[in-house]
Design brief:
This protein is mostly helical. The protein has helices at 4-21, 30-57, 71-82. The mean pLDDT is 77. Helix content is 70%, strand content 0%.
Length: 83
C-alpha cells in the first residue's frame, strides 16, 4: 500500500495558496453545503413518508371509562328493552 502522507502533503501545499487568496468575508457554503443540505432534506422527507405509512397501519381504540357503555351496548340494550 503506498504511503498516503506524501500525496496529502502535496495536495495541502497546493491548496494553501488558494486559501490565502480567499476573502474571509465572502466565503459561502458552496456546492458541498448545498449537496449536504439537499441530502438531509430528502432523508427527512423519506422518514416522514415512512412514518406516515406506518401510522396509517395503527388501529388505536381508546379504552372506555368504567361507568359508561359503548354505542354497541346501548343499541343492543335498547333493542332488548323494546321487545
Amino acid at each position: 500500500m503506498p504511503d498516503m502522507s506524501a500525496s496529502v502533503s502535496l495536495a495541502v501545499t497546493h491548496l494553501v495558496p488558494l486559501a490565502k487568496e480567499l476573502d474571509k468575508n465572502k466565503v459561502t457554503p458552496g456546492v458541498l453545503g448545498f449537496v449536504v443540505f439537499a441530502v438531509m432534506a430528502v432523508a427527512v422527507w423519506a422518514l416522514m413518508k415512512s412514518m406516515n405509512k406506518h401510522m396509517q397501519k395503527v388501529d388505536f381504540k381508546e379504552a372506555e371509562p368504567a361507568g359508561e357503555k359503548t354505542e354497541d351496548e346501548v343499541a343492543s340494550g335498547a333493542k332488548t328493552h323494546k321487545g
